[in-house]
Amino acid sequence: MIIEIRPPSGWPRLELGEVWRHLQIIKILAIRDIKVRYKQSIAGVGWAVVQPLFTVLVLTAIFSGIVKVPTAGVPFPLFAMCAMAPWLYFVHAITTTTSCLVANQTLITRVYFPRLLLPLSTVVSAMVDFLIAFTLLLIMLAWYGHALSAKVVLVPVFVAFNMLNATALGLWLSAMNVQYRDVFHALPFFTQILMFLSPVVYPASLIPEKWQWLYNLNPMATVIGGFRWVFLEGQPAPGMHNLGSIVVVTVALLGGLYFFRWQEDRFADVV
Amino acid sequence: MSSEQPMIEVRGIGKRYWVGPHPFIDRRGMHVLLDRAMRAPYHLLARKIGLAKPPSHHIPSRGHLRWAIRDISFQVAQGEVLGILGKNGAGKSVLLKILSRITCPTEGYARLRGSVSSMLEAGVGFHPELTGRENIRLSGAILGMSKYEIENRLDEIIDFAQIEEYLDTPVKHYSSGMFMRLGFGVAVHLETDIMLVDEVLAVGDKEFEARCVEKMRSIVKSGKTIIFVSHDLAAMKEICDRAILIRDGGIAMEGPPDRVVAEYVAGLGQDRPATDSVMA
Question: Cβ distance A56 to A81 under 8 Å?
């Protein structure tokens, strides 16, 4: 084993093999984050149940009780929960990922390991939220007497796409946040706007035909649309119109990896 | 890979840092612009009607680049222990951080033949909310131990740190001594070819310090290649085969530890008032 040290120059190399060799650390950091998250709180992990449940409750009261959002005959709580499970994961994942480098400042300035492990571990640890919200979704489906169809086998595809989407964005945001904490302050605002641009409280079919192509570039439209199609009746199936979002995620992910690696050399000096 | 080749080879390593305010945030940030905008009317008015000159607000200086270390070159042979001496701020830690790959050099080149572990601080990767046992696993993994190695050494580490009783207590409730002992315990049980050690011996009481020096001795005997930064001059003379003195970011002297220590002590005297005695 020979380690060569020289100043950074040229195009950064991804060195994903090195990340692969340290996969164990992703697991350990993710477990640490999960263990630590609800320490010294009474409700503890109950918060991960309360949050999606009450959000769905309030959304139902407003968008089903007051504003009548068309859901193609699907009970609104189910309609909303199909979006909330992937959406809350996405928000939680990019929020924790954005601050993961700053939060692990001592690690970054004291020990060497591929820095990519940090954002990857937060994207993984946020899955706890998803699994809890997903369980709630399954319980609600049973409650409303919805049987699961064979389409369920495609859930992992949409979950994986959601994770890749969160990773792509998280790589950009976390690396920028090291240098400019503005990113952290802008994030809640950004996710709020993104929620209105995603079919969380309304069906994507409400968007005018001539804007559909633009709307469908949003990866969350694909993820939420996919969830609704899998679990509910009479929802539009995913298809060619989702290709754009796949391109968006691929480009953002590759770009994010290179951007992160390019910025990485400065992390220990700037953070 | 012949044993003739040096384990560590450092050629002309240098690192330049930006010193002073951030060019955008501190000079063009919103708070600076707001501050200026709010003072502007008063400044204008003062000039128009000839009021007393308002206090001019502070604009941070531009800042500049500064070499923390430069032109550092040396080699360390297999099994050799190299001591690095120097005053605070001389650049010792920057050098170790570059060799640990924590930060990048601005110029130069270095090659290390073998696995590397660095002890820049006791308790790296510890999380205050986790227990001692959990932290051994966490820190061990981050410092590069495999799962198997950690389980193998767990008892040894616990024994070394003498914290059996508090093993399942969150480390936030540890005394600072216990925390340091546990951190050092994890670090010294790393099995790597090259160890970079920065000033971690001064942790805890005399008894623990003696145990640390003893442990260092056995590591030295096991034939590892070590770079050792310390202000403990006695330990330096005893453990090291060779020493380097760093002054103002460059190598001022290289040679046998006792001569380098003597030079270092003499250098300390020069900066201090003549009446101040130097304690070695």
Answer: yes
